[in-house]
Amino acid sequence: IFNGRPAQKGTTPWIAMLSHLNGQPFCGGSLLGTNWVLTAAHCLHHPLDPEDPTLHSSDLLGPSDFKIVMGKHWRRRSDEDEQHLSVRRVVLHPSYNPSTFENDLGLVELSESPRLNEFVMPICLPEHPSTEGTMVIVSGWGKQFLQRLPENLMEIEIPIVNYDTCQEAYAPLKKKVTKDMICAGEKEGGKDACAGDSGGPMMTKDQETNQWYLVGVVSWGEDCGKKDRYGVYSYIYPNKDWIQRVSGVRN
Amino acid sequence: HTVELNEMFGQIQSPGYPDSYPSDSEVTWNITVPEGFRIKLYFMHFNLESSYLCEYDYVKVETEDQVLATFCGRETTDTEQTPGQEVVLSPGSFMSVTFRSDFSNEERFTGFDAHYMAVDVDECKEREDEELSCDHYCHNYIGGYYCSCRFGYILHTDNRTCRVECSGNLFTQRTGTITSPDYPNPYPKSSECSYTIDLEEGFMVSLQFEDIFDIEDHPEVTCPYDYIKIKAGPKVWGPFCGETSPEPISTQSHSVQILFRSDNSGENRGWRLSYRAAGNECPKLQPPLFGKIEPSQAVYSFKDQALISCDTGYKVLKDSEIMDTFQIECLKDGTWSNKIPTCKIVDCGVPAGLKHGLVTFSTRNNLTTYKSEIRYSCQQPYYKMLHNVTGIYTCSAHGAWTNEVLKRSLPTCLPVCGLPKFSRKQISR
Predict the structure, then answer these.
(1) A138, A198, B10, B150: which has the fewest Cβ within 10 Å?
(2) Do A157 and B427 touch (CB under 8 A)?
């Protein structure tokens, strides 16, 4: 997270840490319901040949390749309340396109439910689309300025950017921003997600119900925190049916 | 001189016709046609000597046993008859025509020229007497006729009366009504009806005749034509006939035969009886506490059944088994097949656990019997009840914890989403 601030422990209880079995974290995720973690598809896809954009099942992480840790605040140090959970199943979005990052979503089914408490709680799914200018919070244990990794969970507070604006910003780079994506950040750059934050939550609070819901999942961007280079996230609202169909989760 | 004629038609003439006939002559023509026909005779020409009552010359037409006509003369007068245009019909299939002239004729008479023909007898129209007519339908045809019967009837061997197949009627109900066929219309002729009331041993059948009782009888002889008879074991009642109903009959038996016979004549409306079977009576019943007995009867007798059921919220307890109802039966010897069971209050038992939830009892001593109440709740603040149902369950009469909305299904605790305990400062605008 570029130009972020430390998150206050327990304010993002749905944040999940995807880590290799050796404990090395590699992506973020969000707890949905009690058995599912939503993350980015590209977190679960490790192509042996980076140049080969096609999706081979052999490139996918299997359930026994990684684990999920809930209740985390510190990146490396263990937390008193952390819960290590094994994976039962991995489901990528059927239309995920590794080369364009379209539909960059993946669902991880947990073998057992975590114990919910003030540090482990699911986030809600959106009931309606998000509008330009809405302030969202993005959090993760990803790289900061000068490639340094944080000690603890970091977060930024940024506005959602107009779709056309974002599309135009990336047009010169020949990068397509599609309808299943949503952008956020400042025009002048600065606050942004970065490597290692992928899969983590972009969330905001519903003013009526006072509940936090997931707007997006950290997906891609050009460099980190650069001017006119907004962060691009997988947009949850248009994919809500798929998420509910696979996971059965309801608010 | 006799001439036998067997053709279906023919001609006969006086001797020497058309010349005058001789005196002192007699000729007889015996005309025989097949059964089912009669003979029609008519004269084309008739000219005989006239005499008082035709004592001289005459033509006499007769059958075996009656004279049909005697003609003579030229014209009909009050003492002699000429055939003229008249046709003579024989009642049966035989006719004899005799021409007789006496020994003297004052003048010459040309005699007669007659023709005869066989004419079909329409038995259906002509046979009025009961003995001979058809019972139901008569069908005439040239030379004969036959009878047929309405649907459901069978033509008897006399080819005239219509009987019914009414043997082998079996009654196994404890009450019933039996009538003669077609009752209250006249019963069929030539029929042998048998009715059997066959009940389980232990029942005793009693019979009672009702309404019309009309069986053909005879003033002197006891029921020589039609009769009804009742048998039970070695005992026999009847035969009965006439118009006076027999007295009620208590057969003291569980198996009774009723025989009804009709001959081939008579138009009588028959009979109707009702029967009832009763067995030994069983002791009176008292319903159990919180229960009832159906049907509720002042008296129960053999084979009667009683169904014991309990008030809402209670179940029948019989030999430590719980059931909705229990049936007992009055046995042949007047005892009940079982004792009356008791009614036990329904117990819903320990309520099932709820995932991510807990259950609390509304009563201090954690009652689980009918109408007791419990409340499910979810582990707050991390779980909440789906659909915000009350979580209140009552022990129903069916022995299940029941919620107004969810009925018997347990509530679902869903994880609360998006409400962290540690809230962050407001998001900036």
Answers:
(1) B150
(2) yes
Cβ burial B127-158 (10 Å sphere, 16+ → b, else e): beeeeeebbbebebeeeebebebeeebebbee
Q: Write out the H or E segment, with its range, that includes residue A247.
A: helix A240-247
Give dist(CA A42, CA B43) in Å, integer.
132
Chain B residues touching A203 at Cβ < 8 A? 418
Q: Which residues contact B291 (CB under 8 A, 6 or more apart)?
A: B308, B309, B310, B311, B314, B316, B342, B343
- The ipTM (two decimal places) reads 0.90
Q: List the structure tokens of A241.
A: 């049916």
Instruction: Give the list of residues 6+ apart from residue B289 with CB closer than 8 angstroms, or none.
Output: B342, B343
Run means of pLDDT, 10 residues per run, chain B, 429 residues? 94 92 92 93 90 89 93 82 89 94 80 93 76 82 88 90 92 94 92 94 93 93 94 95 94 94 91 93 93 92 92 93 94 92 94 93 92 93 86 93 93 91 69
Best to test chain A binding among B378, B382, B417, B425 (most A CBs inside 10 Å):
B417
The answer to whether residue B320 neighbours chain A at the CB level (below 8 Å) is: no
Closest approach of A107 to chain B, Cα-based (Å) = 17
B388 touches chain A (CB under 8 A): no
